[in-house]
Each structure stands twice: as C-alpha cells, then as structure tokens.
Amino acid sequence: MGQSSSKNAVTTGLKHCTLWKTDRSPACRAVMMALDAMNLSITEVDVNMDKGEHRSPELAVFNPLQTLPIFKDRELVICDSHAINTYLASRYCDSGRFLPKDPGGRALTEQVMHYDSGVLYPRYRAAAYPIMYENCRFVMPQNVCEIECAYRDLEGMLVGRTWVGGSWPTLADITVAATVSTLSVLVPIDKLRYPRLSGWLYRMSEEIYYITANKKGLGEFARRIDLGVYDESDFKCPRSSIKRRGCGPEKHS
C-alpha cells in the first residue's frame, strides 16, 4: 500500500460541502483522513474550541450537541464522524475500497467503527478531557488501565491480519488510527506487549492521508496535553481540503 496509493489520483471538488472541525480532535482527523484517502476536496472551517466557537448560535443550529465535526452537504447535516465517513464513501467513492460494497465486507468494516465509537473514543474522552478542560495534569490510573485493555483488544483483532478492517486499509483503519494515535500520546503503546498494534499503527503512519490529515493535529494535541497551550496561528478558516493537502508532508509534522 503506502504513500503512493493516492498520490496520483484525481481530486474531486465538492464545493457544496463544508466541514467544521478542529485538528486536535481525533474524530475530525478521521474525517479529514477519509477525505484525503478518497481524494475529495471540500470547504474546511477551523473552529477554536478553546474560545467556545463550537457553541456559537450558527453551529448550534446545525448540531445541538455542540460537538465537532459538523458536515454539511447542501441541506444535509451530519454530526458524527463515523456517519460522515460512511456517507462520503457511499455517496462519493464508487470504488468500494474504503467501504466495501458487499454486505459482509461492509459489516466487518462497520463493526470496527462501532468499536471505535463505543469503546475507543469514550476512553479517549475520559482520559483527555480532564487534562484539557479541568486542569488535571496526568492520566488517571483507571483510565490508563482501560486504554491498555483496548490495546489488548486491538492486538487480538490483528491476529493473522495486516489491517483491522480486512485485507487492505478501509474506513475502519482510518477511524481507529485517528483515535489510537491520539490515545498513544496519553498512554504510549508498548511495542513489546503490543507488537501487532504498534506495527499496524506504523503502517498507517506511512499512508499519505495519515501524513496530510493526521500528523499536524496529533502534534497540536500532544502540545496541548504536555504544555496546556495551543497556537492561535493554527486557526485559519475557511480553507479547502486540496489546499491543506498541498501544504506538503513536511508541514504536517
């Protein structure tokens, strides 16, 4: 697979679509990776959650839950990253590469995505939010234990497999990579205890869409966790997906 898989593909511009997001959110980065993997370009609006912009009246109309990402395609509004990604793959990606068209393959992909929404992401929020919003300075022992349990689950899922979603990277891998790479900032993955998981994450980190859509926000998250600060220069909106991808991998480190 590797970086060359989407390098020469034709980009599809969807001027009628908008994504409101913040790069440090793994849910937002999952959508950004899916966009880049499928070579879809839409308008992206960066939202400063530290200033409460996600609670603005404009966005509250779209999403009363006041969470990100928010995706709008003409009059359709979707506010969950898993639903956004399956919609994008079903509506705008005919290949079936990232969301298999056969019922069995799609079910296996969605099974892993449900594991992310039901297990991985809640554990990310439980561990990270006290540090980001409640002046806590470390991951609580119970949260460490729960994240380690998730690592063990994923290690088991990868027995005899190269990718968590099947024989090649799918939306399942993209979704889990966004969350697990963020969890690894909080609780580093022990390569000796979880060799399959660490190997899988390394393979994902070599995909071009991981570099263009995940690395920058992951770095922002790590700085916020380590230093409790964010960089105002990160908020430049709106911009398109194709412009973000055109910045080059070196600017997403």
UniProtKB/TrEMBL annotation:
<dbReference type="InterPro" id="IPR036282">
    <property type="entry name" value="Glutathione-S-Trfase_C_sf"/>
</dbReference>
<protein>
    <submittedName>
        <fullName>Glutathione S-transferase epsilon 8</fullName>
        <ecNumber>2.5.1.18</ecNumber>
    </submittedName>
</protein>
<keyword id="KW-0808">Transferase</keyword>
<dbReference type="Pfam" id="PF02798">
    <property type="entry name" value="GST_N"/>
</dbReference>
<dbReference type="InterPro" id="IPR040079">
    <property type="entry name" value="Glutathione_S-Trfase"/>
</dbReference>
<dbReference type="InterPro" id="IPR036249">
    <property type="entry name" value="Thioredoxin-like_sf"/>
</dbReference>
<feature type="domain" description="GST C-terminal">
    <location>
        <begin position="102"/>
        <end position="225"/>
    </location>
</feature>
<dbReference type="InterPro" id="IPR004045">
    <property type="entry name" value="Glutathione_S-Trfase_N"/>
</dbReference>
<dbReference type="InterPro" id="IPR010987">
    <property type="entry name" value="Glutathione-S-Trfase_C-like"/>
</dbReference>
<feature type="domain" description="GST N-terminal">
    <location>
        <begin position="15"/>
        <end position="96"/>
    </location>
</feature>
<dbReference type="GO" id="GO:0006749">
    <property type="term" value="P:glutathione metabolic process"/>
</dbReference>
<dbReference type="GO" id="GO:0004364">
    <property type="term" value="F:glutathione transferase activity"/>
</dbReference>
